[in-house]
Amino acid sequence: MNTLKYQSQAVAKPYFIFALILFVGQILFGLVMGLQYVVGDFLAGAIPFNVARMVHTNLLIVWLLFGFMGAAYYMVPEESETELYSPKLAIVLFWIFAAAGVATILGYLLVPYSTLAHFTLNELWPTMGREFLEQPTITKIGIVVVCLGFLFNLGMTILKGRKTAINMVLMTGLIGLAVFFLFAFYNPTNLALDKYFWWFVVHLWVEGVWELIMGAILAYILIKVTGVDREVIEKWLYVIIAMALISGILGTGHHFYWLMTPDYWQWVGSIFSAIEPLPFFAMVLYAFNMVNRRRREHPNKAATLWALGTSVMAFLGAGVWGFLHTLAPVNYYTHGSQITAAHGHMAFYGAYAMIVMTIISYAMPKLRGIGEANCNRAQVREMWGFWLMTVAMVFITLFLTGAGVLQVWLQRLPESGEALSFMVTQDKLAIFYWLREIAGVFFLIGLISYISSFWVTEKKAS
Amino acid sequence: MSERFTKGMARNIYYGGSVFFFLIFLALTYHTTKVMPERDHRENITEAVANGKELWEENNCIGCHSLIGEGAYFAPELGNVYIRRGGEAGFKAFFNGWMKAQPLNIPGRRQMPNFHLTDKEIDDLAEFLKWTSELNTNDWPPNIEG
Fold first, then answer.
1. How far is A396 from chain B (nearest CA, A)?
2. ipTM above 0.90?
3. Long-range contact list for B109-112, CB < 8 A, 24+ apart?
4. Which of A229, A361, B82, B145 lies most in the core, judged by the most C-beta atoms within 10 Å?
5. How confident is the model at residue B4 (pLDDT cuts 50, 70, 90)?
6. Residue contact B107–A41, C-beta within 8 A
7. Span A377-387, pLDDT tens digits
8. What tens digit of pLDDT does each residue of A342-391 get?
């Protein structure tokens, strides 16, 4: 059965499938690292922690990028009311990106990182070995090429079609993503400058332009599942992303407290990042409000659950857990502790993993020719996945927060001489790390349940 | 929200607000880079320091350690390790022995790999860590343990 409004939307399907495959990989490596936190020599020869972490974080970034691209390919033709400019280009770029991604991950796993660096001629233009930007320079160039082709394809589609607010916000977010990634190529010898501009990629992505992408996807889904007037939803979208950027741009300052920067950043960063939870709170109100005011009963209950869930979890993870340690006097003690890890996990899951699963949940039944929604049994299985993963992530965050509070208490608050060393402190945190690992196993069970829902069909009447 | 607040007004706040605050951000960034030399002592970046940074990157040290609080939280903070492990008097000797003793192979303990660095490379890395420990980080970390 053909259930797509525009046939070229079909290019989104491989992007979504590949995103979920990488997601599974991300979680498996997360479990390896979680175990290494307590059984330090577990697989230490085969997969040293730094390799596992690099794979864990890079898979996250890449699967989210695949998800965003799939989302854009799915949404833009429908929003523009025209076929995609070039479906063929979208498929070619898919294979290039997938091949480059797999080759890079295999490079991390199969050879020592320094060998990979020499093999890819890092010394010609050193960009490797910085957190989240570990990719060989050649891979980074590949990412830029893929992004340019992707933006060209979408831009040409929008130019010949309808220019909705959702389209414009999505495009602004994606162009911002590509532009700020260029700072990944700037790696001066002076660590002070390196660190300062590294945040132009990292912060201005996740607390800047990615929020535009998230907002656009959420707005699109809310229009589809609630039937509420587009004018209302788009007005709210603008209000929310205005708050996100007005707070988030100068909120970058909360990363500059302890770099080689003037201390006014402690004021600027504290004040503006204290406002950062507001857009996320507004997003919760907006999502629930629109669903309550719905004018239709959409059969895809799972997609609606994801849309509401992502707003709540983004508010908790990015908003509340971000605020927890964002004020300079607090951050002085919590900076680079397990508190940071707690916030990172829930924020990425709530805001970005969940928004990608929201659009996948909505679009996949149509892409697969099933119709408006999966059968009831499949949706129930999917919702089991939702709750298991989400509750597991809440516990992961709580346990890491417990570990972080104790770490700050033992290692950071006492004076030199009284404070416990890093490694001694880590031993004292073991119980939290074990509990986190158990919660991680539940997360994996939730993920398996979620993935398996794609194969669930209605029972045949006997 | 009242009917008088239109989508067009919301859009203008979005565009206007973003551009306005981004310009402020750029202005502050410009000022920050102007005063940074007093805080990073870039005149002390020798060839050894520069080479040390490259070694730091090419062995993915940030994958386990943090440097001035940024990085992974699996192994100790190294922004001030130079001071913590002996400083002028003892750091280089300690560091050379430490790098060569890896992996410690203590059962159950977190393992640091051996990166097979030469004495010169270990010395360059030490110079990088020494320079890093002298950066003005607004008094972070709170104590010597990092």
1. 16
2. yes
3. B109/A40, B109/A41, B110/A36, B110/A40, B110/A41, B110/A44, B110/A49, B110/A423, B110/A426, B110/B74, B110/B75, B111/A40, B111/A41, B111/A44, B111/A48, B112/B64, B112/B75
4. A361
5. confident
6. yes
7. 999 999 999 99
8. 999 999 999 999 999 999 999 999 999 999 999 999 999 999 999 999 99
* Interchain pair A336, B73: CB under 8 A: yes
pTM for this entry:
0.97
Q: How far is B33 from chain A (nearest CA, A)?
A: 8
Per-residue CA distances from A198 to A173, A203, A280, A389, B134 (Å)? 19, 8, 25, 31, 21
Q: List the single best residue of A238, A247, A337 to mutate versus B (max B Cβ within 10 A).
A: A238
Nearest CA in chain B to A257: B138
Q: Closest CB to B39: pick one of A129, A235, A260.
A: A260
Of B63, B70, B77, the CB nearest to A422: B77
pLDDT, tens only, B116-145: 999 999 999 999 999 999 999 999 999 999
**Chain pair A-B, CB pairs under 8 angstroms:** 223
